[in-house]
Specification:
It is built from 14 helices and no strands. The protein is mainly alpha-helical. The protein has one domain. About 55% of the residues are buried.
């Protein structure tokens, strides 16, 4: 049994069709969100100065971190409490979700203001990031409850609202970061309606009766190591965003952000599929069903390989045939291509390791993952800083690639051990 081999080359046409049928419902929503963010980034790239575009891209990065914190700190313990019928812990988690949203909003707003935005421009972006993280919490719980349609509808509603708002901005020639932030915030708020009365009834009950002390056992058992792992992973994944922005300013982050922007479709798929596969892996591990676990890993890796291939084709087509869509702000084609190549290498490594990480989460290896992420974070920070100071912002992506490779190398033996336990 071989872990971590993208198996696209071994996948026949029938298997490819089966993969599409299985994963399309889970991927179509994230692709709608990815498309909306791509359109926003493209519109802002062409109409805003480099500093404003850098701030917007930085907000997207930090929003992704907030979503990861929401997943580790809220979704994982909520999954256990809801499946186990622990109403007190569930209520506490729903109350904490609002507290976390307020913290995210304040933090993002202050970060945008530190980048040079006025409060009137920074606040919509801060609120947008907070609502986006809360929406991820609601979306993930919809999958836990078997309501995938609600999650997909939320994604589609968000994507369509953003697209409509951006279209109106472009047609009326009123493109600004403030108006763009307001459009994104409105879309995030409207997309919450898809989760229905039952979700908001739970939220209301949590607000009334939830006690944060009831969350502490879940924090000790599940969340603490998971959150540490998320924090270290964030440093590994996005050290360039923080270092470039804080050392060289938000304008310098524009080119690395452009490279990662071109890889946005596969990155959204990498974020979305774990919600589908984690419960399936948990069931396979509990049943000691190694064959079923192998099948899940096979399909997971193959789906990510297909998503990566499609993303590379799209990015290549844009750079070769429509470079003016991306380079209006004076960025050189060579620099943009170098950023895209480094970003593509990063996404290739992440496509290999994402299924292994989900397997280790399902196996409860949060402490091992946190320790591995801490080692990788040190490598990512030091190498990113060295490359940034020596070769500039685009080269800083190489430090992120090294951090990802460290994580992948450490995950392989851990995942092999977890897989062997399924046959014990």
């Amino acid at each position: 049994m071989t872990l971590a081999a993208p198996i696209l080359a071994k996948t026949g046409s029938g298997t490819k069709l089966a993969l599409v049928r299985r994963y399309f419902p889970s991927v179509v929503g994230p692709l709608a969100v990815s498309g909306a963010h791509f359109l926003a980034s493209l519109l802002f790239l062409r109409n805003l100065d480099a500093a404003e575009f850098g701030i917007f891209s930085f907000v997207l990065v930090v929003s992704g971190f907030a979503m990861s914190i929401s997943g580790a700190g809220l979704v994982l313990p909520a999954t256990r409490s809801m499946v186990g019928g622990d109403a007190r812990t569930t209520a506490a988690i729903f109350r904490l979700a609002l507290v976390a949203g307020a913290v995210f909003a304040a933090g993002l707003t202050l970060a945008a203001m530190a980048g040079g935005l006025a409060l009137s421009h920074a606040a919509p972006l801060g609120l947008f990031g907070a609502v986006l993280a809360y929406r991820w919490f609601a979306r993930s719980l919809a999958y836990v409850e078997g309501r995938a349609a609600a999650a997909i509808f939320s994604d589609m509603l968000y994507g369509l609202t953003v697209a409509a708002g951006l279209g109106a901005m472009a047609l009326t020639h009123r493109v600004s970061l403030r108006l763009g932030g307001e459009v994104l915030l409105l879309a995030a708020l409207l997309s919450l309606a898809a989760f229905g009365r039952d979700f908001f009834r739970l939220q209301w009950q949590g607000l009334k009766s939830g006690r944060l002390r009831h969350y502490l056992p879940a924090f000790r058992d599940v969340t603490a190591w998971s959150l540490l792992g998320v924090a270290m992973t964030e440093i590994t994944l996005n050290a360039h965003a923080y270092l470039v922005t804080f050392i060289n300013g938000p304008g310098a982050f524009a080119l690395p952000a452009l490279g990662m922007l071109l890889m946005r479709p596969v990155s959204l798929v990498q974020m979305a599929l774990p919600d589908l596969e984690r419960p399936a892996m948990l069931r396979a591990l509990a049943a000691r069903d190694g064959a079923r676990l192998d099948r899940i890993l096979f399909e997971f890796q193959s789906a990510l390989a297909l998503a990566l291939l499609a993303t590379l084709l799209l990015a290549g087509a844009l750079l070769l045939f429509a470079p003016n869509l991306l380079l209006r702000q004076g960025y050189g084609l060579g620099d943009a291509a170098a950023a895209a190549l480094l970003a593509a290498a990063i996404m290739a490594v992440r496509s290999v390791r994402a299924p292994l990480g989900v397997l280790l989460q399902a196996a409860g290896e949060f402490k091992a993952l946190a320790r591995l992420s801490a080692r990788a974070a040190i490598v990512a920070i030091l190498s990113t800083l060295a490359l940034l100071l020596t070769f500039g912002p685009v080269a800083s992506l190489g430090g992120i690639l090294l951090g990802d490779l460290v994580i992948l190398a450490g995950m392989k033996p851990l995942a092999r051990k977890a897989r062997q336990a399924a046959d014990a």
